UniProtKB/TrEMBL annotation:
Signal peptide: none annotated. Residues 13-174 form the SRR1-like domain. It comes from the Eukaryota. GO terms for cellular component: cytoplasm; nucleus. This is SRR1L protein. InterPro entries: SRR1-like, SRR1L. The lineage of its organism: Eukaryota, Metazoa, Chordata, Craniata, Vertebrata. Pfam families: SRR1. Belongs to the SRR1 family.
């Protein structure tokens, strides 16, 4: 958690709230449990009250949803597909090992220098995404990741032998306002919502996939 403090010192204001996507089935998966534990440590480190942290994962069971609520965390009522607005508040997005489309959708939803400068993303390394994908695929399928790269600061989380699979390829990303203002006007002019029609390996649960959020009162499958 201390490794996150230094990058956040460069942000205009510390996060006042948190959104977590894709935590996974922590009831049966040690990796997901470690990621949840780290999230709780981060909230404590950043002095973000648990009630200001909202989570969504369509994989959560009824018991897992109830456990999160017992911890004081909030559950998002529906699948936003990552399209969550910062709404003027400095926000930490905790998205460890999420699909590229979720990051792309989040950037699209907040596509302005003012909004992006209020975001911190802990998730898959954007530099790693750039290195692994052909540039034409990155620009076609994940254009907002491609466009924001020059306006991004990124620091990798330190590796730990016990948690190699838990936080591998995970970085802290933030978007300094001065860097964003240096991007060309053409970068900001195109704001079409992503559709992923040509994407072959879309790593996202969509609303129409039927994996909608179930409240804790629902029957656990």
């Amino acid at each position: 958690a201390g490794a996150v403090r230094a990058p956040l010192a460069g942000c205009a204001e510390p996060p006042a709230r948190c959104v977590c996507y894709g935590l996974g089935r922590f009831g049966g998966c040690p990796t997901a449990r470690h990621q949840l534990a780290f999230l709780l440590l981060l909230l404590e480190e950043l002095r973000v009250p648990p009630g200001h942290c909202a989570l969504f994962d369509p994989a959560f069971t009824t018991r897992e949803a109830a456990a999160l609520e017992q911890l004081g965390l909030r559950l998002l009522p529906e699948n936003e597909e990552g399209k969550h607005s910062v709404e003027g508040s400095a926000t930490l997005f905790y998205m460890v090992h999420c699909g590229k489309a979720l990051y792309n959708n989040l950037l699209w939803r907040n596509w302005s220098a003012g909004a992006l400068s209020k975001m911190v993303i802990i998730g898959n390394s954007f530099r790693g995404i750039e290195e692994r994908l052909l540039s034409r695929v990155l620009e076609r399928d994940y254009s907002y990741i491609a466009k924001v790269l020059k306006g991004t600061e990124e620091v990798a989380l330190p590796t730990h032998p016990r948690y190699l699979d838990t936080f591998n390829d995970t970085s802290v990303h933030w978007f300094p306002l001065q860097k964003l203002k240096g991007l060309s006007p053409e970068v900001w002019n195109f704001v079409e919502e992503p559709t992923y029609q040509d994407c072959e390996d879309l790593e996202i649960i969509r609303k129409e996939d039927g994996a909608e959020w179930r409240s804790p009162a629902a029957t656990e499958s």
